[in-house]
Design goal:
Strand order of the largest sheet: 2-3-4-7-8
Number of helices: 3
Structural class: alpha+beta
Distance between the termini: 22 Å
Order of helices and strands: EHEEEEEEEHHE
Radius of gyration: 16 Å
Number of domains: 1
CATH topology: Peptide Deformylase
Shape: globular
Largest sheet: 5 strands, antiparallel
CATH class: Alpha Beta
């Protein structure tokens, strides 16, 4: 089932999400819905807070970008209860966008390499290192479960310059081809 994507201004996007366990109600269906919602919105990642659930789950499929970023070939994963344990001090800057901030793309500086621990959809534990654009996508989605948005990394000047766009998003004055859920 395709779910509406929560947009800027909704309080769930600013909550630190809670861990879940293997008994989380209808988890397989939730994951299926997240994948379907992400693909319908032409996203490469989606976090549970973006569909209104303050839980520590996100999904990523970077295959679409593999031509430009070879490290994304075959990169399709579910991350549950993730914790970034080692962000590298080397950083890189790239443009980012977000389904919850439609129409906004900004340059964001992030660590170029991370180590992340998480459990997968079968609750098998993993600790893996990622670099390049894979690390960037993970950090972007991870921020959602930490109650952060990529715009939080912008300078105060850049934030002022996009304030009108942010207000329009919060009011639903956006042109997207996927369902959205406005702030209450």
């Amino acid at each position: 089932m395709i779910l509406p994507v929560v947009v800027y201004g909704h309080p769930v996007l600013r909550k630190v999400a809670e861990d879940v366990d293997s008994n989380y109600e209808n988890l397989p269906q939730l994951l299926e819905n997240m994948w379907e919602t992400m693909y319908r919105a032409d996203g490469i990642g989606l976090a549970a807070p973006q569909i209104g659930l303050p839980i520590r789950i996100f999904v990523i499929d970077g295959n679409e970008l593999a031509e430009d970023y070879p490290e994304l070939a075959g990169f399709k994963k579910t991350f549950i209860n993730a914790k970034i344990t080692f962000p590298e001090s080397n950083k890189c800057t790239e443009a980012e966008g977000c389904l919850s901030l439609p129409g906004i793309r900004e340059e964001v500086t992030r660590p170029s390499r991370i180590v992340i621990s998480y459990v997968d959809e079968n609750f098998q534990p993993h600790e893996e290192a990622y670099e390049g654009f894979a690390a960037r996508i993970i950090q972007h989605e991870y921020d959602h479960v930490e109650g952060k948005l990529f715009i939080d990394y912008l300078s105060s000047l850049r934030k002022r310059l996009i304030k009108g766009k942010l207000n329009s998003i919060a009011l639903g004055k956006v042109n997207v081809d996927y369902k959205i859920k406005l702030p209450k």
